[in-house]
Amino acid sequence: MKRLYLFICCAMTLALELCSSASFAQKFLENNESYYSTGYYYLPDSTKISGLIKYTFLQPGYFRFKESLTAKAVTITADECIGFHEDGDKADFETLSNVKIPAGLTNRKLSKCFAELRIAGNLNLYLVYFEKSKPGFSTAVAPGISVGTSSVAGGPPRVATSRYMLKKKNSDVVQEVPKKAKQFRKEIAAFLSDKPGIVDFINSHDYTDDEIEMVVQAYNHSK
Known about the structure:
- With about 220 residues, this protein is α+β, with helices and mostly antiparallel strands.
- The protein is built from five helices and twelve strands.
- It has a ten-stranded antiparallel sheet. Strands 9-10 form a two-stranded antiparallel ribbon.
Protein backbone atom coordinates (compact mmCIF):
# COMPACT_ATOMS: atom_id res chain seq x y z
CA MET A 1 0.00 0.00 0.00
CA LYS A 2 2.81 2.42 0.84
CA ARG A 3 4.43 1.78 -2.56
CA LEU A 4 1.09 2.66 -4.24
CA TYR A 5 0.92 5.80 -2.12
CA LEU A 6 4.40 6.81 -3.24
CA PHE A 7 3.45 6.34 -6.90
CA ILE A 8 0.45 8.65 -6.34
CA CYS A 9 2.71 11.18 -4.62
CA CYS A 10 5.05 11.20 -7.59
CA ALA A 11 2.17 11.73 -10.00
CA MET A 12 1.07 14.71 -7.94
CA THR A 13 4.50 16.31 -8.32
CA LEU A 14 3.61 17.23 -11.89
CA ALA A 15 2.82 20.54 -10.26
CA LEU A 16 6.54 21.07 -9.89
CA GLU A 17 6.69 21.83 -13.61
CA LEU A 18 4.85 25.04 -12.81
CA CYS A 19 7.50 26.07 -10.29
CA SER A 20 11.13 25.38 -11.08
CA SER A 21 12.67 26.80 -7.92
CA ALA A 22 14.94 24.48 -5.94
CA SER A 23 13.45 25.80 -2.70
CA PHE A 24 9.99 24.51 -3.67
CA ALA A 25 11.41 21.05 -4.38
CA GLN A 26 13.31 21.10 -1.09
CA LYS A 27 10.10 21.80 0.83
CA PHE A 28 8.44 18.86 -0.94
CA LEU A 29 11.28 16.58 0.10
CA GLU A 30 11.16 17.83 3.70
CA ASN A 31 7.42 17.18 3.92
CA ASN A 32 7.94 13.63 2.68
CA GLU A 33 10.39 12.97 5.51
CA SER A 34 7.43 11.89 7.67
CA TYR A 35 6.61 8.78 5.62
CA TYR A 36 8.73 6.02 7.14
CA SER A 37 8.09 2.40 8.04
CA THR A 38 9.85 0.22 10.56
CA GLY A 39 12.54 -2.00 9.12
CA TYR A 40 16.21 -2.83 9.11
CA TYR A 41 19.25 -3.06 6.86
CA TYR A 42 22.39 -5.17 6.74
CA LEU A 43 25.96 -3.94 6.69
CA PRO A 44 28.46 -5.75 4.43
CA ASP A 45 29.51 -7.91 7.43
CA SER A 46 25.81 -8.92 7.88
CA THR A 47 25.34 -6.76 11.01
CA LYS A 48 21.63 -5.89 11.31
CA ILE A 49 20.68 -2.25 11.94
CA SER A 50 17.02 -1.67 12.95
CA GLY A 51 15.07 1.59 12.78
CA LEU A 52 12.82 3.50 10.37
CA ILE A 53 13.24 3.31 6.59
CA LYS A 54 11.88 5.32 3.68
CA TYR A 55 12.60 4.09 0.16
CA THR A 56 11.01 5.38 -3.03
CA PHE A 57 11.52 4.48 -6.68
CA LEU A 58 12.93 7.94 -7.48
CA GLN A 59 16.53 6.81 -7.10
CA PRO A 60 17.56 3.13 -6.97
CA GLY A 61 20.82 3.66 -5.11
CA TYR A 62 19.84 4.87 -1.63
CA PHE A 63 17.20 5.06 1.10
CA ARG A 64 16.58 7.31 4.10
CA PHE A 65 17.04 5.93 7.61
CA LYS A 66 16.25 7.05 11.16
CA GLU A 67 17.14 5.27 14.37
CA SER A 68 13.93 6.63 15.94
CA LEU A 69 11.07 9.04 15.19
CA THR A 70 12.97 11.95 16.74
CA ALA A 71 16.39 11.06 15.29
CA LYS A 72 17.90 12.89 12.33
CA ALA A 73 17.47 11.13 9.00
CA VAL A 74 20.56 9.94 7.16
CA THR A 75 21.08 8.58 3.67
CA ILE A 76 22.23 4.96 3.29
CA THR A 77 23.62 4.03 -0.12
CA ALA A 78 23.93 0.70 -1.92
CA ASP A 79 27.68 0.92 -1.35
CA GLU A 80 27.13 0.91 2.42
CA CYS A 81 24.86 -2.11 2.86
CA ILE A 82 23.89 -5.39 1.23
CA GLY A 83 20.12 -5.10 1.60
CA PHE A 84 17.19 -3.92 3.69
CA HIS A 85 13.64 -4.83 4.73
CA GLU A 86 10.54 -2.61 5.02
CA ASP A 87 7.79 -3.76 7.36
CA GLY A 88 5.21 -1.45 5.73
CA ASP A 89 5.36 -3.16 2.33
CA LYS A 90 6.76 -6.39 3.75
CA ALA A 91 9.39 -5.98 1.06
CA ASP A 92 12.96 -7.23 0.96
CA PHE A 93 15.60 -5.43 -1.08
CA GLU A 94 19.05 -6.67 -2.02
CA THR A 95 22.04 -4.88 -3.50
CA LEU A 96 22.75 -5.73 -7.14
CA SER A 97 25.88 -4.79 -9.10
CA ASN A 98 26.31 -3.69 -12.72
CA VAL A 99 22.62 -3.24 -13.50
CA LYS A 100 21.59 -1.82 -16.86
CA ILE A 101 18.46 0.30 -16.85
CA PRO A 102 16.91 2.26 -19.73
CA ALA A 103 17.34 6.02 -19.47
CA GLY A 104 15.45 7.02 -22.61
CA LEU A 105 16.98 6.15 -25.97
CA THR A 106 20.06 4.71 -24.29
CA ASN A 107 20.85 2.45 -21.33
CA ARG A 108 22.91 3.42 -18.33
CA LYS A 109 24.76 1.05 -16.03
CA LEU A 110 24.60 1.38 -12.25
CA SER A 111 27.62 0.06 -10.34
CA LYS A 112 25.26 -0.80 -7.46
CA CYS A 113 21.56 -0.36 -6.74
CA PHE A 114 18.76 -1.73 -4.58
CA ALA A 115 16.32 -4.22 -6.08
CA GLU A 116 13.15 -5.65 -4.55
CA LEU A 117 13.30 -9.45 -4.30
CA ARG A 118 10.08 -10.82 -5.83
CA ILE A 119 10.92 -14.53 -6.20
CA ALA A 120 13.80 -16.35 -4.50
CA GLY A 121 15.29 -19.64 -5.68
CA ASN A 122 17.92 -20.99 -8.04
CA LEU A 123 16.76 -18.10 -10.22
CA ASN A 124 15.95 -14.87 -8.38
CA LEU A 125 13.53 -12.28 -9.77
CA TYR A 126 14.02 -8.64 -8.79
CA LEU A 127 12.25 -5.36 -9.50
CA VAL A 128 14.35 -2.20 -9.77
CA TYR A 129 12.59 1.16 -9.32
CA PHE A 130 14.07 4.21 -11.05
CA GLU A 131 13.40 7.32 -13.14
CA LYS A 132 13.96 7.84 -16.84
CA SER A 133 13.57 10.74 -19.25
CA LYS A 134 10.16 11.31 -20.79
CA PRO A 135 9.97 10.23 -24.46
CA GLY A 136 10.94 13.06 -26.76
CA PHE A 137 13.23 14.78 -24.25
CA SER A 138 16.98 14.71 -23.91
CA THR A 139 18.35 12.00 -21.60
CA ALA A 140 21.20 14.19 -20.41
CA VAL A 141 21.03 14.81 -16.68
CA ALA A 142 21.00 18.54 -16.02
CA PRO A 143 21.88 20.16 -12.70
CA GLY A 144 18.93 20.33 -10.35
CA ILE A 145 16.73 18.28 -8.06
CA SER A 146 14.79 15.46 -9.67
CA VAL A 147 11.41 14.80 -8.06
CA GLY A 148 8.66 12.51 -9.37
CA THR A 149 7.70 13.27 -12.95
CA SER A 150 9.62 16.52 -13.23
CA SER A 151 13.24 17.50 -12.92
CA VAL A 152 13.32 21.04 -11.63
CA ALA A 153 16.00 23.72 -11.96
CA GLY A 154 16.46 23.17 -15.67
CA GLY A 155 16.51 19.36 -15.99
CA PRO A 156 14.46 17.33 -18.48
CA PRO A 157 11.09 15.86 -17.35
CA ARG A 158 11.46 12.45 -15.66
CA VAL A 159 8.97 9.63 -15.12
CA ALA A 160 8.95 6.94 -12.44
CA THR A 161 9.13 3.37 -13.74
CA SER A 162 10.51 -0.08 -12.93
CA ARG A 163 12.20 -3.03 -14.63
CA TYR A 164 12.50 -6.73 -13.82
CA MET A 165 15.97 -8.25 -13.37
CA LEU A 166 17.13 -11.86 -13.12
CA LYS A 167 20.10 -13.33 -11.25
CA LYS A 168 21.01 -16.97 -10.78
CA LYS A 169 22.02 -18.34 -7.39
CA ASN A 170 25.77 -18.10 -6.75
CA SER A 171 26.24 -15.79 -9.74
CA ASP A 172 26.81 -12.04 -9.96
CA VAL A 173 25.51 -11.72 -13.55
CA VAL A 174 22.33 -9.63 -13.76
CA GLN A 175 20.01 -9.97 -16.75
CA GLU A 176 17.48 -7.26 -17.59
CA VAL A 177 14.06 -8.62 -18.62
CA PRO A 178 13.06 -7.13 -22.00
CA LYS A 179 9.52 -5.89 -22.39
CA LYS A 180 8.97 -6.88 -26.04
CA ALA A 181 8.33 -10.49 -27.06
CA LYS A 182 11.06 -10.87 -29.72
CA GLN A 183 13.79 -9.47 -27.48
CA PHE A 184 12.42 -11.37 -24.47
CA ARG A 185 12.59 -14.69 -26.33
CA LYS A 186 16.13 -14.08 -27.57
CA GLU A 187 17.73 -12.76 -24.37
CA ILE A 188 15.92 -14.81 -21.71
CA ALA A 189 16.29 -18.07 -23.66
CA ALA A 190 20.03 -17.40 -23.89
CA PHE A 191 20.29 -16.54 -20.19
CA LEU A 192 18.44 -19.73 -19.17
CA SER A 193 20.12 -22.00 -21.72
CA ASP A 194 21.33 -24.33 -18.93
CA LYS A 195 17.79 -25.79 -18.93
CA PRO A 196 16.76 -26.78 -22.51
CA GLY A 197 13.20 -27.53 -21.39
CA ILE A 198 12.78 -23.93 -20.21
CA VAL A 199 14.23 -22.65 -23.50
CA ASP A 200 11.60 -24.70 -25.38
CA PHE A 201 8.95 -23.30 -23.03
CA ILE A 202 10.05 -19.71 -23.75
CA ASN A 203 10.18 -20.30 -27.51
CA SER A 204 6.69 -21.82 -27.53
CA HIS A 205 4.95 -18.48 -27.08
CA ASP A 206 5.46 -14.73 -27.48
CA TYR A 207 6.09 -14.03 -23.81
CA THR A 208 6.85 -10.54 -22.49
CA ASP A 209 7.92 -9.21 -19.11
CA ASP A 210 4.29 -9.59 -17.94
CA GLU A 211 4.85 -13.37 -17.86
CA ILE A 212 8.30 -13.34 -16.28
CA GLU A 213 7.07 -14.60 -12.89
CA MET A 214 5.64 -17.71 -14.56
CA VAL A 215 8.93 -18.32 -16.40
CA VAL A 216 10.95 -17.93 -13.19
CA GLN A 217 8.69 -20.33 -11.29
CA ALA A 218 8.94 -22.84 -14.14
CA TYR A 219 12.75 -22.61 -14.04
CA ASN A 220 12.92 -23.00 -10.26
CA HIS A 221 10.65 -26.08 -10.27
CA SER A 222 12.23 -27.82 -13.28
CA LYS A 223 14.83 -30.56 -12.99
